[in-house]
Amino acid sequence: SSNLGWNYFSLVHLIDGFVNENVSSMGHRRWCLNPTMAKTGFGQVENHYAMYSFDRNNTDAEDYNAVSWPGQITPVQYFSNFDYWSLSMGEVVNKNSVSVTMTRLSDGYVYKLKQDEFYVDNGGYGLTGCIIFKPNNIDFVQADSSVAVHIEGKYDSYNNKDDFSVDYTVEFFDLKDYLISSFVTRLYEVCLDRTPDSTGSASWVGQLKSRMITGSEAAYGFIFSPEFKGHNYCNECYVEHLYNAFMGRKSDAKGKKYWVSQLESGSTREAVFNGFVMSNEFKEICDSYGIDI
Length: 293
Known about the structure:
The chain is α+β, with helices and mostly antiparallel strands.
C-alpha cells in the first residue's frame, strides 16, 4: 500500500527520489502523480521511509487525457537534462507503435528519439501506459526556455485500439529568479502600495540577482525613496509599514508603542529602520526568497 524507500536524508529527499528513480517503469513517480489519489501520508523510522500512495478516492478529479512530468511550467532546480521525462496515458499502450519527437523552441531544433531512448510500461503503477523518455546528450532543459513534445502511437487495451497523438509544451524557469522577482514585487506592494513597474522591477531584480545589493539595501531604497517619503506618513503609520514590510505581520501594541516612542524621543527614521531590517524576522523573509540580508 506504499512507496517504500531507505537511506534518504529527509522526507523532501525521499520525494525527489520517488520522482526520479525506477527509470524502466517510473512506478514511484506515477503513484505520486496519480490524479485519483485523494489522501496520502508519510512515515519515517530511522532511515526507512514510506508514502501511502494507493488511494483512489478522488472522485472529483477533473477529466484528464494524460499526466506528464515535467509539468507544463517547471523550475530547472527540480528537473535536469539527466532526468527522464514521462507521459502516462491511462490506458495500455502498444510498445512498438510509439514515437517521440521533441522541439527546442528557442532555436527550432527538432529531435526524434531513437528506440533505445524511451520505454513503455503498462504496469499498474498509478496510471498505466507510461511512456518514459530521455534524449541522450542533448540540452533541452534550460532556464527561460520551452520544449514542445509530440508523442504518437496506438492503444492496446481491450476496449480501445485507436491511434493517439499528444502535443504539449514544457516551459522551464529558474526558481531563484522567480523568488527574487517575488521579493521585489513584495517590496513594491507593501512599501509603496502599488504593483511594480517593469523598468523599476527589472532594475531591482538585476541588482539583487548579481549581488550588487543585499535585501537590506533594497529595502532601504524603497523606504527612503522619494515616492515613499512623499506620502509624509506619521510616526505610527511609518512604524506600521516597517512591521508589514520587514516582519511580515501587523504590529503588536507593545512593540509599536516602543518604536513610536523612540521616534518621538529623537531617534531618526533611519535608526528605527535599521532596527527592523536587522531583525530575525526580516532575515527569515530574505532567506525564504534566497536573498542575502
